[in-house]
Amino acid sequence: KFGGEDYIAKQRREIENTIEREYMKYLQTPQNLSQDTRKLPTEESDEPDPVFQIAGLKKGVLSGRWYDLRYCMREEKTGNFSVQLADCQENSKLGISNKIRTNVSPLQIRRKPSKLKRQGLNDNETAAWRRKNHIILSDENPIFNPYTTFNQLNLPKNLRGAVENFVLPMPIQAQSWPVLMKGRNIIGVAETGSGKTLAFLLPIIMKILEMPVLGTNLVTRGPLAVLLAPTRELTAQTFQVAQSIGEKCGLICNILFGGVNKHRQTKRLRNGTHIIVTSPGRLLEVQRERKLSLSRARFMVLDEADRMLDLGYKEDILNITALLPAERQMMMFSATWPDEVAAFGHQVLKNPVTVMVGIRENVPLACPNILQIVEIISTHPTVRYMRLKELLRKYHDPYPHSRVLIFVREQHKVKNLDKRLREEGYPYSQCVHAGKTQRERLKSIRIFSKREHSILVATDVAARGLDIPNIAMVINFALPFRIEDYVHRIGRTGRAGAKGLAYTFFGRDDHRMMGKLKKVLIQSGAPVPLDLRKMRPRDYDRQTEAVKMDY
Length: 551
Description:
Layout: H1 5-28, E1 72-76, E2 81-85, H2 88-94, E3 101-102, H3 106-110, H4 115-119, H5 123-132, E4 135-137, H6 171-181, E5 186-189, H7 196-210, E6 225-228, H8 232-246, E7 253-256, H9 262-268, E8 275-278, H10 280-288, E9 299-302, H11 305-310, H12 314-323, E10 329-334, H13 339-348, E11 353-357, E12 370-376, H14 381-395, E13 403-407, H15 411-423, E14 429-432, H16 438-450, E15 454-458, E16 471-476, H17 483-490, E17 500-506, H18 514-523, H19 530-534, H20 537-546
Parallel strand pairs: 5-10, 5-11, 6-8, 6-9, 7-8, 9-10, 12-17, 13-15, 13-16, 14-15, 16-17
Antiparallel strand pairs: 1-2, 2-3, 4-11
């Protein structure tokens, strides 16, 4: 009986058994080893990665930067390490020795590139690499063959620290860097958490440092690079990354966004700036007051371009590009690729090279590292809240280093849910929504990111650009109205190669999302509930209306 208690109980058991099997594999891994001797899965292993290897929850070991160690296999020997590359077949084809070396730190071995890799891939290897990573390139000129190692980027010494925790570039980075280093405009489309920030930031900084006069000299007439972002949170986050890298090279970075004191922000511009991270509205406001000139800008980035169009920034972006010099390099990055974004990209960028990672049939591809679970459940708030408490007790409470992000559609429901969680055993719960001031939102996010065992209840204001490590689980208490927002929501977990879990409540109010949600689940290799797979929207309405559950 659809929606009846027996059906719901059976469905919950099936879902919990699926997660339990994955979780038991995590429990079977050695937990008493130190961080340096913990064995990690290899690409050769037939066993899937356990769901709760998300961040070494019990030991508090962050795995967000450990994803590249899947290319290495570390074995504990008596006092020594033995390191072996995991993909031996591919190495044999490339002529790389698979000899095991001992008495050498694994971290040293993983940072040492082979001579062949330093030379780059040939055309056949490039085609195979792109097929493996689901990359479509609009211009397959050999000069755009990917940089599959960091050495091919020829980073100066003071920039190498930005990538020291990574073994290999992410696919969007590897394919974007050769395009940008050749001076071409680019449109990059990739899933959330795929490393798009470093994809454009490192080439920009390298090119600024190469400028003989405008490089490290103090720029007093305006920025050399303008990075546009749609939200305050994403602007602040991109600025933090740019500042941490730029200050090592003597570059000055500044930030502009609304909701805070404008005088304090513009006061910092008096000392000059090389890179400015800003929202479109505040940038135009400051420019009209003649406190900033864009006449020297050589680089412009549109980050999260799809979101900027959703927020109505199209005219602002066109006005900003009109203020830039003709000789400029434009970069546009997005996590989704609807027709309106594609048309706008080709309107703003001249003859761009398009790099698409994992986008199929105009449906955004969710990160494959995220285990997506969709549960058909009543829309009654009490039923959903009781189910939420069950999930928290099982997958959050026992693990002191986990963080959970809960998404709700309406502001008042965010407040109510946060208040109820605080009153019923979760005093560390925080909430973020558009009704809060910028200072309050940043404070809540800061508390959530610093406190390991915490919960954040938010609207879609936190769905984009929020990059907080060790978010073990995302719960869609209510589905968004757009499939792109769903992908951005669940992309807050499983970032930078780590594992994540996304749990979604699906009710009769979500029938318009049914078709696209099924496509996202299928393309990501996620399980689709049997009833959702067979159901059509009109069937869903008829069945749910026929069953009136009494609460």
